[in-house]
Amino acid sequence: MDPTAHHFAVTVSNLDRAVAFYRDTLGLDVLSEFSVGGDGFETGVGIDGASAEFVHMDAGDARIELVEYTPEGDSRSEGRLNQPGATHLGLEVADLDSVYESLPNGVETVAEPQTTESGTRILFVRDPDGTLVELLET
């Protein structure tokens, strides 16, 4: 087996709002939009009656897949990075300070940009559903 990355998925509660955040705030382009449903999908995801709307966003060498399910699942509690099962997306930027300064009002950040002991600069923001997105400058 020789797998390669295809996409990294985030389930969202409102696809239009999520696309606006990833496109307008983080500057990612929409690659494709599509819907999936039917028996094979229901069985594959293990959810009776499931269908979903998808948008693939261009993140350079990978795609971010935003998914809005019908029926919508229960909200999970807001996790922290040190909890098992926690997830985040990592996106590299050229100038972290200018990205931080240009964030629209209302975008939640964990802290202002920080430099780690390895020299990498990091900034964690939350998308509209609370998913952590790490912006980093190496």
Main β-sheet description? 4 strands, mixed
How does the helix and strand content classify structurally? alpha/beta
General shape: globular
User: How many domains is the backbone divided into?
Assistant: 2
- Along the chain, the helix and strand elements come as EHEHEEEHEEE
The overall strand count is 8
Question: Share of helix among residues?
Answer: 10-25%
> What is the gyration radius calculated from CA atoms?
16 Å
Mean model confidence by pLDDT: 87
What is the count of DSSP helices, taking H or I runs of 4+ residues? 3
For the record, the CATH class of the largest domain is Alpha Beta
Which second-level CATH architecture of the largest domain applies?
Roll
CATH topology of the largest domain: 2,3-Dihydroxybiphenyl 1,2-Dioxygenase, domain 1
Distance between the termini: 31 Å
Tell me what portion of residues adopts beta-strand conformation: 35-45%
